[in-house]
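ok new one. same drill as before - structure tokens go in, u give me an amino acid for every spot. 98 of them this time. try not to just spam alanines like last time pls lmao
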């Protein structure tokens, strides 16, 4: 985790996570993660940032299956951040930022 003591900042971490969220390599997941990150990243606390980063590390195909509900969500990813990502998928008129 980045903080002032190791040369990073919370703002820099958020910017890095936003960049990664929009460029995962799987277009559908890029759009979902990018839209969520634009809307929520600056409101997440340290734990939320950790949860978001863990989801960024998970394989695209698995995350996409979890979001679609075609594969069971592992308990370690069952958190408020995943619920926020899932809510992006349920929008009637989504505004994609990517």
């Amino acid at each position: 985790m980045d903080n002032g003591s190791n040369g990073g900042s919370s703002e820099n971490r958020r910017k890095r996570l936003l960049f990664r969220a929009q460029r995962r390599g799987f277009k559908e997941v890029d759009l979902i993660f990018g839209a969520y990150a634009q809307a929520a990243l600056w409101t997440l606390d340290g734990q939320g940032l950790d949860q978001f980063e863990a989801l960024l590390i998970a394989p695209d195909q698995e995350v996409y299956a979890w979001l679609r509900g075609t594969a069971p969500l592992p308990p370690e990813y069952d958190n408020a951040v995943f619920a926020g990502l899932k809510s992006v998928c349920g929008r009637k008129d989504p505004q994609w930022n990517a």
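Residues 1-7 have pLDDT under 50 and may be disordered. and btw Residues 25-89 form one domain.
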